[in-house]
Amino acid sequence: MGAQKGIQRANEIYRDRSRRVLELKADGKEIIGYLCIYPVIEMITAAGMVPYRLFGDIREPKTKVEACLPTVVCPYLRSVMDIGLKERYNFLDGVVMAHSCEVAEKLAHIWKTYIDQKYAFFLDVPHTIHDAAREQFRDLINDFKLSLEKYTGSPITDEMIVDAINAHNQQRSLVKELYDLKKSDKPKISGVETVKVLMAIMSLPVEEGNELLEEVITEVKGREGGDNDDKKRLLLWGSIIDDTALFELIEDVGADVVIDDTCVGTRPFFPDVELTDDPLVGLANRYLVDIKCPRTFKEANFGEKKKDYMEDLESRFGYIKQLADDWNVDGIILHSLRYCDIHGYDIPGLKDYFESVGIRSIYIEPDYTEAALAPLRTRIEAFLETLD
Ligand code: SF4
Asked: Which residue among 236, 239, 243 is best mutated to probe the pocket of ligand 1, counting the most ligand atoms within 8 A of its Cβ?
């Protein structure tokens, strides 16, 4: 495959995500699907199985899901369920779903009712980051470990968990290295290519994902970089985007998505797991506190001071401004899928915050269909014209 090896392989896996895990399954590996970014995938790796992220399909009409999920809930989750009901996730040996949001919690139970798989686990996740919540989450992760041990019939030792943490942390470092290649004036890799690479590694065992990332990074480092200095540099924030279509639209009208804060982008990869004496403590801290998703309530620490709205916004959203500064962005696209309450509730605060720090933003609310994206083109073009 020569010089195109990494990117080309990522493209192939993006187009046919299950192909590699089906080969592994034929060799006796067990494949565990996981929904959203809260199932602790290190535990699946430590148990010797392959974590495989569940995505929907914005191009596929939803024809089966009406039987069990109404139209006024997350269209991404409806799509995942629809695909499950069409038996396209039947190759999975099991699934792990978590209490990411209320609908995801419901989906875990609905899935178990409608789809017969050998293994299913629901990981409850507290919604606050207080000490008691962290301790509780550590114990809930331990319940997940015990359930995997029962399923596989083999113990999962601390050493196995630490090895898995190290492998996933290595993956996180490589993803950060890839994003660093988008910091220059001429980003060396586009948003479209980035999302393909990330979706590919979420469809592979961690070691294979790391090899793929190393190939991609070597290949991308050898590039000259983009050819258009005039392109606007954008940050994309929001709920799940598991398809290249929105990135294609944005990049087609003269912008580069150089950084993001979405749950297929930096959000699942930027925070590492700290190695603690009890590895479950490090995992609990990372998943509950360090992952920045609006599903977790984070109180601002005002100490003795009176509460102040702008300080609250700074404490909740300052990390996004840091990303915007580090990647030198011109503007921000705020994306919340239709009916995604947890992202939608943050929009007014985010708008106020970015206005206060002088960064222009636009809010879009597509409904997880390819057709919903076309009308956004004109709005995004108009937004780009407002950027200095
Ligand atoms: S997009 Fe929103 S509603 Fe849908 S799964 Fe994610 S957090 Fe939940």
From this structure: 239
